[in-house]
Amino acid sequence: MAAPAPAAGAAAPPRAIAKLPEHVVNRIAAGEIIQRPSNALKELIENALDAGATSIRITVKDGGLKLLQIQDNGSGIRKDDLPILCERFTTSKIKAFEDLSSLGTYGFRGEALASISHVAHLSVTTKTRDETCAWKAAYSDGVMIPVKSGSDDPAPIPCAGNDGTVLAVEDLFYNTPQRLKALRSAADEYARILQVVIAYSIHNAGVAMSCKKASAGSSNATADVSTSLGASAIDNIGVTYSEQVKRELVEVSAESQEPSVTLRAWCSGTNYQGKKGRYLFFINNRFVDCSPLKRALEAFYSNFLAKGTHPFVYLSLDLDPTKVDPNVHPTKKEVGFEDETEIVEFVCEKLAERLASQGESRSYKVQTLLPAGGTPKASRPTSTSTPTASTSRRQSGASSSTSKSKIAPNKLVRTDAQSQTLDALFPALPSTSKTRNVVDADAEGDGTESDRPSKKRKSDHDPAFAAQLAAEQAAAQRSARVRIAQSECALTSVKQLRKEVLEARHKGLEDVVKGHIFVGVADFATCQSAIQHLTKFYLANHALLAEELFYQLGLRQFGRFSRIRLKPAPDLRETVRLAVEAASANGARAGKTKLSTDEIVERVYTTLFDARAMLDEYFALSISDDGSLETLPVVLPGYEPDVHKLPLFLLRLGAHVDWHAEKACFESFLRELAFFHSPAPSPSLPALDSAAQAKAKHAIEHILWPAMRQYLVPGEKLVEDKAVVLTTSLEALYRTFERC
């Protein structure tokens, strides 16, 4: 007999409660934690940082949906831990719930890799420093699966690999089509990925990070984000956003005992005019959203910024871990902390104090209005930096006057270190001498932007040559503006040499070089340049400074030099012979050696030829099998060394480089490379003609001095050598002449 149907309007009987299958539970949990590719990348970057990585490389395809690969040089994963790596709630970060109150790592739940394995194909290649090979494993739904198709053994397989870990996430959300359809375009997802990389690269300044799109058939795609090892937070802001943004930021640092908080920030000043607000918040090193803090900063900046403009804020708060709850959101994008109101007020208070110390003036961009006749009115202002009364009151607090004290004429700096001259846009015409038959500047880059093609010179009256010359000049200008990134190097000797440069820094001389204003080449023969810093005038030996600059640039680019190819490639023996014969003709060898010219040439040749593999790998100096010199390193883009000094350079490599100890070898080679590039004229070479001198002076002013301002770290040795000497000051001139 059939069961009676429920009466009309009666409630349906309750459904039976059933336990969901484990794979459904895991997939639902994975969807909460990994909501889009940028969430997955955030978890992977944090794992790499927890592993102590100093280099993180990210490769993305189709916005991270087809491929999201992250490679680090951290501590790696033990082979014995690989079988449980992607199981839920497996972690090395905490042992008990109480550990959350003293958490010092990003990860703690052990859910990230497990969640990824439930919605993507995950493979891991890892190597610890004490293992002889790397191990590769693949995962699906939290368990290890065979790496090779057709195999039944899920165990990790040995493979070649560097120290650290490579995680490849492929086909993200392949088994959740609804989530895949809900995502935006690949371009939008990639933009979100870049924002995550930029935020972590700024907060973890000193860790080299790069992010690029995977290119079909090419492994040298240009990185959209690339920061250097050892860079500072403000440097990375300049690289990832722009130098203009960097110039408008002010640093804010403060501490408080009650509430317990340490504040570090780079925030936009009152002249910043961003069309879109940028907020990067890190609380106890976690990249988070903090709505109360964001609202408070928006209200704070509304009193300073022009209508329609928004601030840039990178802010890091270190709070007492016992007062922070990181476990309030599945993706960890929010944290809870005590004393929220007091901490937000503390941040705004310190920011207000910092901006008030900047001064009272404001700068505005004002468009000139033209009357109907087209002639501008003489009385109409085109720009202003005069503060309004309301602006001054807001910025100076209790100040009742907006007038600024007039600077005394004998202390007034009338020039600006950032100003440029028009002749910088018109390079000196290159010489048409035979040196262009020695070096054809067919520059080859190692994946850098410093490649600079050029050709041999033709007649000055050839129209095609004139057009080519104009293109070369434009290329030279672009090359001079290329930013020289510091290469990644694991060699202890190179790290020590770089550290020694920083430890020898002379702060006073560095301030002069960084803030100098170039006046002119005072004496070309003795390498003296006149420069000004604030109200003081100096004579600087640009040859000594440039030689140290080239040494430091060589150290900076160790193992990653661009190349300039020599066409035709000179014979190494014959080139060295030129230097030996020149030394003999000048009497430089008298009484110093009993070796014949041929013996000296052969010794130098053998030394360089035997070391050619090392020279090619580390210094881009390539010697062919038949003994021809094929390439030289490009130390400073846009600057060409004097090729007449090439024979002497090769001879000195054989005689002055310590080829037995690694550190001494690298240092002495780079010193000789710097000597070769130095603008100091060689006494054994004929004096330059007027055209060549004009070109050399142009390079000194518009290539060498700007590079010294940007890269040179002057040391105590330059002070001892009197590389920069004070000649007079504006105050002294006023005492003598009573005017300037």
Summarize it.
This protein is 35% helix and 17% strand. The protein is an alpha+beta fold. Mean pLDDT is 79; it is low at 372-404, 429-443 and 446-481.
Low-pLDDT ranges: 372-404, 429-443, 446-481
- SS elements, strand count: 26
For the sheet with most strands, the description reads: 9 strands, mixed
Radius of gyration: 32 Å
> Beta-sheet strand percentage?
15-25%
Percent of residues in helices: 25-40%
The assigned structural class equals alpha+beta
Q: What is the rounded distance between the termini? A: 117 Å
Shape: globular
Count of alpha and pi helical runs: 23
Number of domains: 3
| Overall pLDDT score | 79
Structure overview:
This protein is α+β, with helices and mostly antiparallel strands. The chain has three domains: 203 residues, Histidine kinase-like ATPase, C-terminal domain (Heat Shock Protein 90); 116 residues, Ribosomal Protein S5, domain 2 (2-Layer Sandwich); 263 residues, no CATH class. The protein contains 23 helices and 26 strands. The strands form six sheets. Strands 1, 2, 3, 4, 5, 6, 7, 8 and 9 form a nine-stranded mixed sheet that branches. The chain has a five-stranded mixed sheet with strand order 10-11-14-12-13, sandwiched between helices. Strands 19-23-25-24 form a four-stranded antiparallel sheet. Helix 15 crosses helix 21. The longest helix has 22 residues. The protein is globular and about 120 Å long. The N and C termini lie far apart (117 Å). About 11% of the residues have low confidence. This is DNA mismatch repair protein S5 domain-containing protein. It is found in: Nucleus. Keywords: DNA damage, DNA repair, Nucleus. GO terms for molecular function: ATP binding; ATP hydrolysis activity; ATP-dependent DNA damage sensor activity; mismatched DNA binding. Its main location: nucleus.
